[in-house]
Amino acid sequence: MAENNIDWASMSFSYKPTDFNVRCTFKDGQWGPIEVSDSEYIPMHISAACLHYGQESFEGLKAFRGKDGKIRVFRPEENAKRFIRSAEGIGMEPMPEELFLEMVRNVVELNERWVPPYGVDASLYIRPFEIGITPLLGVRPATEYMVVMLVSPVGAYFKNGFKPTKVCMSREYDRVAPKGTGSIKVGGNYAASIVAGERAHNLGYSVMLYLDPKEKKYLDECGAANFFAIKDNTYITPASDSILPSITNMSLKQIAEDLGIKVDARPIPFEELETFEEASACGTAAVCSPICQIDDLDTGKVYTFGSPDQAGPLTTKLYNRLRAIQNGDVEDTHGWNMIIG
Ligand code: PLP
Ligand code: COI
C-alpha cells in the first residue's frame, strides 16, 4: 500500500499512487467481471490496437468529501454517456452506463482513504480509460477492449488555481479537424495539442486557446477545458462541433440560470474578446480557472479582463456555487451528486 502522508492543501494536478485500480475486459462479445488490481501496470501485446492506431478514450471526474463525511462523485452519469460516445466515435466497444457507474463506485470505495479531507481545495480525480487490446497489424477495430479506472488525489490544474492567469492564442495550431474527433474524448486529440501546449507554457501562459479549425474566426476551447466569458450579466460560451461538450460547462450554464444570469451559447467571433468583462476556462480538472489576459501571438493584440489579482464577481459566484454543490454545502437541487458512504 502506498504511503498516505500527503500535504493535502498544496497538491498539484499530478499522478500519485493509491491502493487499487479496477479493470474490466470485453472479450468474446461480452464484458467480464470487474477485477480489482493493486498493480500500476497493464500486461499488453506489443501489437495491441491502442499502441499503434490510437484506439484509446478516457474520462475525468472527481470525488469530494463533505463536511458530513460523505463522499460525493459529481455527475458520473454524464461521464458514462460521454464515454459511450467516445468509444463509438473511434469504433470501440461502448461500456454500458451501469457497469461504468459500478466501477466508479468500486474504485472510490477501495481508495476511500485517498479522498482529500473537507475544507482543503483538493479532490480525488477518477480517470477511466478504454483501450483496444487485440493484436493487429492492419488498421481496423480491435475485438477485445479493456477499461481501467485509476484514481489520484489532485489539487489545481491551472498553476494559480482560482487566481487569474494569462492565456495565448494562435492560428498556427489545431488540436482537432472540423469534422474530426473534437467532440469526443480520445487520446489522439491530446497528442495533437502537446506541441502547442508546450509553446504556450514555455512562453509563460497557462494554456493555448484554440480557434475553430475550419475558419479560424471563432473561439473554440482552452486546451483541456472549455471557455466562457461574462458580459452584461450574461454567461457566453462557444457553440462548436469541434469542442468537447464539457460537463462542468453544462453545469455552470444551469447554475448561471439558477442565479439569474442569462446564458448565451453560440459561435463567438474572436474579435468579441474585446468586449468581455470576465473570462474563464472551465472543466473537471480546471474547475473555473479565471483568465485575466489573452495574447494573440500572431497579431500581438492583447485582450484583458478585469483584475490580474482576482477573479471577477460573476465568475466567483458561479465557482462558489459549483464547489458548494460538489462539497454538499448547499442542496443538490438538480440531483447531480452520486453519494458514497
Ligand atoms: N475540453 C477538453 C478538450 C477537455 O479535455 C475537458 C476535460 O475533460 C473539458 C473540455 C472539460 O470537460 P469536463 O467539464 O466534462 O471535464
Ligand atoms: C479533465 O478535466 O478531466 C481532463 O480530462 C483534463 C485532463 C486532460 C487533464
Describe this structure in words.
With 341 residues, the protein is an alpha+beta fold. 22% of the residues lie in helices and 28% in strands. It contains seven helices and 18 strands. Strands 1, 2, 3, 4, 5, 6, 7, 8 and 18 form a nine-stranded antiparallel β-sheet that branches. Strands 9, 10, 11, 12, 13, 14, 15, 16 and 17 form a nine-stranded mixed β-sheet that branches. Helix 2 packs across helix 3 and helix 6 crosses helix 7. It is globular. The model has no long low-confidence stretch (mean pLDDT 96). Bound molecules: pyridoxal-5'-phosphate (PLP) and 2-OXO-4-methylpentanoic acid. 2-OXO-4-methylpentanoic acid binds next to loops.
Number of strands: 18
Radius of gyration: 20 Å
Structural class: alpha+beta
Spans of at least 5 consecutive residues with low confidence: none
Strand content: 25-35%
